[in-house]
């Protein structure tokens, strides 16, 4: 369980004034939850994901992971977090090939002395079979290509897949993540690839993974049968359980978010 209490984060705006990205946010995410964050631009969705990933420290507030209180970077806790950002080009290794990314994951981030010699024919076949087992033969064919030569949409799908395959790739069979964070995972995808991406997310959730996903599209939440947490100005203003989410509730959700945008 993740218990977030009175979380606050302020940035300096272009005019030098303080801008509150999170303003007393309180939220509970249970183990195995699939929670979708929605809200107007600037509502704090990405800031929350970056704090949960350990990229940012909150100014105030409290995060409790199980029985461990965290006011420290998440990376210093015994918590494994996989984060796929909205812009995959922001990742540290865009020029590494897909095969090298998978090798990096297999070796748990340890750089061998002869890096490129690690991409053996046996490993390539293993990676190809894994990707094909997830229904993405196009990515299996692209294993020799650098990540930044793929479209933004395919980069998103590949990075979700890397998270999905972590325990299958690693020598440590318990290397799967405790929490998967996804920032607008379908925003750059066409209809078919969006469907594929959502199917991957469903598969991960079905395996018992805890997932927090930010999106502007309530159809994504409906497709995933997910809980919706609506933010405005860094606060939680609505929490809609998955059981209450139906096709006829989408207009109400859209109207609520439009109303929140109009009052900014």
Biggest sheet architecture: 6 strands, mixed
Overall mean pLDDT: 83
Task: Please give the CATH class of the domain at 1-79 and 218-264.
Answer: Alpha Beta
Quick one: how many beta strands? 10
Specify Rg, calculated over alpha carbons.
19 Å
Strand content: 15-25%
Q: For the terminal residues, how far apart are their CA atoms? A: 32 Å
Per CATH, the architecture of the domain at 1-79 and 218-264 is 3-Layer(aba) Sandwich
Q: Name the poorly predicted regions.
A: none
CATH topology-level name of the domain at 1-79 and 218-264: Rossmann fold
- Specify the helix fraction band: 25-40%
Key traits:
single chain; 264 residues; alpha/beta; 6-stranded mixed β-sheet; 9 helices
Structure description:
It is a single chain. The chain has 264 residues and is an alpha/beta fold. It has a domain at 1-79 and 218-264: P-loop containing nucleotide triphosphate hydrolases (Rossmann fold, 3-Layer(aba) Sandwich), CATH 3.40.50.300. 33% of the residues lie in helices and 24% in strands. It has 9 helices and 10 strands. The protein has helices at 45-52, 98-106, 121-133, 137-141, 152-164, 166-169, 191-206, 218-224, 250-262, and strands spanning 2-12, 18-29, 34-38, 60-65, 68-70, 81-84, 179-183, 210-214, 227-232, 235-240. The strands form 2 sheets. It has a 6-stranded mixed sheet, with helices on both faces. Strand 7 (179-183), helix 7 and strand 8 (210-214) form a beta-alpha-beta unit. The longest helix is centred in the last third of the chain and has 16 residues, at 191-206. The relative contact order is 0.18. The model has no long low-confidence stretch (mean pLDDT 83).
